[in-house]
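This section describes the prediction task in plain terms. A model, or a person checking by hand, is given the sequence of a single protein chain and must write out its three-dimensional structure as a string of tokens. No templates, partner chains or ligands are provided. The sample shown here is typical of the held-out split.
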Amino acid sequence: MPILSKLRIDSFTLALLATVLLASLLPLSGTAARVMDVVTDVGIAFLFFLHGAKLAREAIIAGAAAWRLHLTIFASTFVLFPLLGLAGKPLAHWLLTPELYIGVLFLCTLPSTVQSSIAFTSMAGGNVPAAVCSASMSSLIGVFLTPLLMGLLAGTQNGAGAAMAHPLQAIGSIMLQLLLPFIAGHLLRPWIGAWVERHRGVLRYTDQGTILLVVYTAFSASVIEGLWRKTPLDALLAVALIAIVLLALVMTILTFGSRRLGFSREDEIAIVFCGSKKSLATGVPMAKVLFAGTSLGAIVLPIMLFHQIQLIVCAFVAQRYARAAHRRAADATAGDIAD
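The expected answer:
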């Protein structure tokens, strides 16, 4: 059925659900948990090393000139999203547990995705070089802005964010664990870039495997501390609803805003897809650093739900953009023939 095919759940989301179920039934504790924690730290460093090696400098240079587009995307990612997160505080406190609301705020401060933002921009016929540049720069800027924004937002939550690491300390830890391997990988790209490109399909499982490891360790600790006992079902449903509303608001604002600002159709597409996405691949490792020693399960739940919702919605929107471009091309061809 056409509707069901558009709403299909991808294999990675199924793997995430299976990981959460495994952690709920067989949570790690004691020595096994400490060993797995070290393994995930190494895996995260390797993940960002590969991200750096995959990033083509030529694509960044090609898209760097579109500064108005980049400012619009960064404003959405690091200003509009956090403001919407704060605006929902009264309703969220009624529907969510304090930990889940911190997770929603964390979602709102995260950088954009890289791979899927570029993929959807390309599918819809948008400005791909600008999308590559903007999404990549968003990930790098997020290393500094996400901890600072979380320090500001969590400080408004009456002590709910007290367990979060100090923003400056978190920036140092994130730079050491995420940014340094990323830069190392990018600097080594002239020597390993071709190998990485040839094995890009296989290395995708390194990304996904690392995220699954972090999710398993995070949920293991949270389950032992009583995550499911403390989190009612209606709160989980509320998180999904909030994620849907957030994405709908941001995509609507970006669509009409980019048109009012005079951007071309290609730039509009890049703005809509890069400015509305949030990175699970960056968010889970960042949460591990920012909220070290705390129950991560409830904090990463919102980004896990948002991840699947954004994939479904953006796939549908990208197809609509592509069909509209086809119709315009067909009309133009018919007009030329008529002339």
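For orientation: The two ends are 41 Å apart (CA to CA).
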